[in-house]
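Researcher: Quick test of sequence recovery. Tokens follow.
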């Protein structure tokens, strides 16, 4: 099978297309014929060596994908050959024609959801659901501000918050990004940093929930526009920031954060149960920015970190 290998840390040029033998599923494992691969920003940092987790070489990136079950190992009863699935975790990496996963890392994919959309589910929707539902405990009638709402995780958060009956404010850096946010159900789409407009929309009270994708840039401003008893959930950060703790004290607000890798398995199972239902009902509809051939994975890594990107970039084996 064809697979992307990384043999040393570096830039996108380190993503090399190679040929290896097909993996075989062991006990509790499932082999999937991959029809689409979801590309995530953290994979670019792992490739460059700047991420907290360091891979062993040769390394095949990717934890998200979608396809058809090719074979199942001993003890697997939840799936059979021919099932449509989305991949939310891989033992061998998903930047490949075939991927090996634990059975618990696979989830059923509805017939009306494309493989490209299925590949856009794993990390973005699980992260967004964990943030909006489990950590922020978003409620019907509340107002939520989602920073970077035009990205894959941001758009997932918009759809999830909308399904809860929340009023959604999203931010993006381009007119195109802001229009996509509105198209996905947000009530308002703003440029980054429009604190006065957020306060105007909320009659000066501030928002109940903020989902923060870049805390090192926005957190200080977030603290000054969160409502009394509001909740800020940090999903991403790329550096340090100076804040005024009294802003938290005065509003009796909560600031929390998480990484998807630390979510307990029962919580992760509940998250994906909810995602599967959302996909089946049509409440969750992953937005695809661009589909790129697997052999051109380098271009995908360049595109996903480029300013103004929206939705999800998908590789096609």
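Model:
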């Amino acid at each position: 099978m064809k697979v992307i290998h990384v043999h040393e840390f570096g830039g996108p040029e380190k993503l090399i297309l190679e040929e290896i033998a097909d993996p075989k599923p062991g006990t509790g494992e499932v082999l999937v014929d991959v029809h689409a691969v979801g590309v995530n920003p953290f994979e670019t940092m792992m490739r460059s060596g700047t991420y907290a987790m360091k891979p062993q070489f040769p390394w095949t990136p990717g934890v998200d994908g979608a396809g058809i079950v090719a074979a199942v190992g001993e003890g697997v009863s939840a799936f059979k050959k021919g099932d449509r699935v989305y991949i939310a975790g891989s033992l061998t990496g998903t930047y490949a024609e075939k991927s090996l996963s634990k059975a618990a890392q696979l989830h059923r994919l509805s017939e009306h959801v494309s493989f490209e959309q299925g590949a856009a589910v794993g990390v973005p929707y699980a992260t967004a659901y964990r943030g909006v539902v489990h950590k922020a405990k978003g409620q019907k009638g509340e107002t939520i501000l989602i920073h970077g709402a035009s990205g894959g995780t941001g758009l997932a958060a918009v759809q999830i918050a909308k399904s809860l009956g929340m009023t959604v404010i999203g931010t993006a850096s381009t007119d195109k990004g802001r229009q996509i946010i509105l198209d996905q159900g947000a009530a308002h789409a703003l440029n980054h940093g429009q604190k006065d407009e957020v306060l105007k929309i909320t009659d000066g009270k501030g928002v109940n929930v903020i989902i923060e994708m870049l805390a090192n840039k926005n957190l200080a401003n977030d603290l000054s526009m969160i409502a009394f008893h509001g909740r800020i959930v940090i999903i991403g950060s790329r550096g340090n920031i100076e804040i005024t703790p009294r802003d938290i004290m005065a509003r009796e607000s909560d600031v929390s954060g998480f990484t998807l890798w630390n979510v307990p398995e029962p919580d992760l199972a509940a998250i994906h149960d909810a995602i599967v239902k959302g996909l089946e009902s049509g409440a969750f509809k992953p937005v695809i920015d661009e589909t790129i051939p697997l052999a051109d994975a380098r271009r995908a890594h360049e595109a996903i970190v480029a300013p103004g990107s929206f939705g999800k970039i998908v590789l096609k084996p």
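The two ends are 10 Å apart (CA to CA).
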